[in-house]
Structures are given as C-alpha cells and as structure tokens.
Amino acid sequence: MGTTQLESVPEPKYWHLKTVLSEALDSEFTVGEILPNERDLAARFGVARATLRQALEQLELEGRLQRRRGVGTTVAPPRVGVAIGTEHQIWPGTGDDAWQAVDSAVAAPPAAVATALQTPREQAVHIVRRSRVSQGRPVAAELLYVPQASVPALTAIDTPSGPARARAVLRELQRLELEGQDRAVELGSARADDAKELDRLPGAPVLVVTTRFFAEGRTAALSVATYRADTCRLTFGASGGVEIHDGPERQAS
C-alpha cells in the first residue's frame, strides 16, 4: 500500500481520517479482512496513533469495523436491514414474527410507560422480554408492556415462567381486535440490561423503536425495541411487519 498524507482541513483530523479510511475499506478490503496494525496505519496516513484510534473508534461505532480480541480489527459485514412497514398491522408474536420469547414478569412499569398505557404508576403490568438474532448475531432486544386488563383470562392459565409464560401473554393479547398501531424511532444509549443482551457496552448507541398497539379504544400494549445502531439500518415502506434482511448498502435508507 502507498502512503497517503492528510492535507490541512477545517474539520477535526480524526474525522477526515475516518472518511479516508472508510473509502479505503470500500476499495481495498473485503468483509472479515484484518486491518494492518495501528503503527502501520498511522505511518500510511501520516497521523499520530491517538488520531488513528479516534477514527477507528468512530468507524466501529458506525458498524464499519469490528474489534475482536485475539484477532484484531476486521472489516464488518453490511448492516442488517430492518424494514418497518405500515400496510399490515399485527399483534406481536403473530405469524412469522422473527422475535423469540425470552421471559415474562409482572411488575410496575417505568413512569413514562405507565403514562403511555394510561395506567396508575404503581399498577403492575405484564412485561414480556423478547430477543432477535440475525446470522448468529444479537441485533435487538424488546420489552413489551401489556396491562392486565388486556389479558384478563391469563390469570386462569397455569403456565410456568420463562418463554412459555411470555408466549401465553402474547396468545391472550391476540384475542383482542387490533384497531391500529403507531411507531416512533429515536437514537438512544444502551442501558445495562440491553447492552448485555446485545453484546455491547453500556452507553453504546442504539436505535429505539417504540410501538403502541390500540384495541378497545385504548393503548392495549406498548413495545420498546432496542436495535444495535452499529449493525442495523431502518428502512421504511409499506412492506408490512418488521423484517430483517441483508443488503449490500451501508448507507441509511
């Protein structure tokens, strides 16, 4: 590889280096390929190793690179595409839902969730925990909050805890006639529980998709799904449901 010197630019040097490195990843490297060591990369681009580390860290946050202990820094695969459609509305756990039930508990929800559900803050609700994996990688974690009024017959069901209990809550929820749903997407930071499940550090950037499900003239359930921002990109359209697919594009749709 030749030597590339960075010219004086108004933006931070590490940010410009990140752009140059990104172009090199597209033109010179393949997915899974190990990058040269920091000393060689710093020499190639004529920067201090501290500047190089800042650029590499930014590329890792954006999902372009993966740092693997004992292996080194490798080129990451393309982001997993998450298509969020609006044409077909279904309850969680219906049909070919890609989420896997993990557990279910009864507890008081966070204040913001109680407000959205229009339930008293101290009133316990069913909290279903689900996860989503693509190509062996954890890509999302979900907490589904279901008021007990939405699944009144559940107390009569003798279901153990764990995934079986979570599936029972979902089955009972589907007895209601879904009248509609809405979604909101925002950038957030991974909480300790989500970070552990998503194999990320606490505080890592995530995409939070909040979905409200309406039935009987009220919010019958609320989903808070946390996606890894470094491996996921959200696409919007009338494809129906939420699908995970692989695509060659790295840019956001």
Secondary structure topology:
Layout: H1 13-28, H2 38-45, H3 49-61, E1 65-68, E2 72-75, E3 80-85, E4 100-107, H4 111-117, E5 125-134, E6 137-147, H5 163-173, E7 180-189, H6 192-198, E8 205-215, E9 218-228, E10 232-237, E11 242-246
Parallel strand pairs: 3-10
Antiparallel strand pairs: 1-2, 3-11, 4-5, 5-6, 6-9, 7-8, 8-9
Helix pairs in contact: 1-3, 2-3
What does this molecule look like?
The structure is a single chain. The chain is of the alpha+beta class and about 250 residues long. The model is unreliable at about 240-253 (pLDDT under 50). The chain has helices at about 15-30, 40-45, 50-60, 110-115, 165-175, 190-200; strands spanning about 65-70, 70-75, 80-85, 100-105, 125-135, 135-145, 180-190, 205-215, 220-230, 230-235, 240-245. The strands form three sheets. The chain has a six-stranded antiparallel beta sheet with strand order 4-5-6-9-8-7, sandwiched between helices. A three-stranded mixed beta sheet has the order 10-3-11, with no helix packed on it. Strands 1-2 form a two-stranded antiparallel ribbon. The protein has two domains: about 15-75, Arc Repressor Mutant, subunit A (Orthogonal Bundle); about 80-245, Chorismate lyase-like (Chorismate lyase, 3-Layer(aba) Sandwich). It has six helices and eleven strands. The protein is about 25% helix and about 35% strand. It is elongated and about 70 Å long.
Keywords, please?
about 250 residues, alpha+beta, Arc Repressor Mutant, subunit A, Chorismate lyase, 2 domains, 6-stranded antiparallel sheet, 3-stranded mixed sheet, about 25% helix, elongated, disordered C terminus
